[in-house]
Design a protein that fits this description.
This protein has 9 helices and 13 strands. By secondary structure, the chain is an alpha/beta fold. The chain has 3 domains: 107 residues, D-Maltodextrin-Binding Protein, domain 2, CATH 3.40.190; 73 residues, Periplasmic binding protein-like II (D-Maltodextrin-Binding Protein, domain 2), CATH 3.40.190.10; 75 residues, Double Stranded RNA Binding Domain. α7 runs parallel beside α8.
Amino acid sequence: MRLGTRGSALALAQAHWVRELLAAAGQECSLVEITTTGDRDRAVPDKLKWVKELDEALLDGRIDIAVHSAKDVPSLLPDGLALVATPPREDPRDALIGALGPRVGTASPRRAAQLRASAPEVEVREVRGNVDTRLAKLAAGEYDGIVLAVAGLKRLGREAEISEVLDLVPAAGQGTVVLAARAGYIVPDGLNDPATWTALCAERACVAALEADCHTAVGAHWDGTRFRAWVGAEDGSAWLQDELAVAGTTEEPEALGALLAERLLSAGANAVLGR
């Protein structure tokens, strides 16, 4: 079996972990590194930049499974492809490295909006590059702090650098590795975690119903007992948050995600998002 992955340090760490899980299930794999549009130019304003070339490799048979960070996968997949498994989720929260202010760096509109709404005295600045690049910019004094995903730092062995875990509503799928394959692919036993799968389906349905993209300040997270969603103006001037108390699993997570989105839309989410 051929596992397709981006060549970044984080992507490779995730792919090696999936390969270990598949080996434990009796399936030997090789890794195929694929350069995506996002690897060539992070400024391209589209989620497809992280997955397009991997999708193409699946469709033309060069790989059998693509390993993705779930938060990078667009709501709509190309015809003939499907998400097929989610191993157990890592910590989905956001982490501060350094100090909260006065100059805090993030590349995420969601993080920027929530920081501006909760700490208006902080100047939120854009910071791009991989984890090592961003940490180097922090060390060089360009920022007082930067915000990154706890999951990525843990997978890279950089958890000790976390100064504080922030109470932000995470991005849909944050902390989740998801596997994509050609439609009809049968996943080996033990590879899919039902609770992670249910949460991901609900979160993706919520942001899809909100018509969110990589420019939209939207978060959605189900922790197994509480399903939260947050939408805001990127400047932090207006925002909405709602939640549902939902314990355990559900057979219709997509309907649950759509319901939470509909509540936010009824409360004026489109106006908050400037539509």
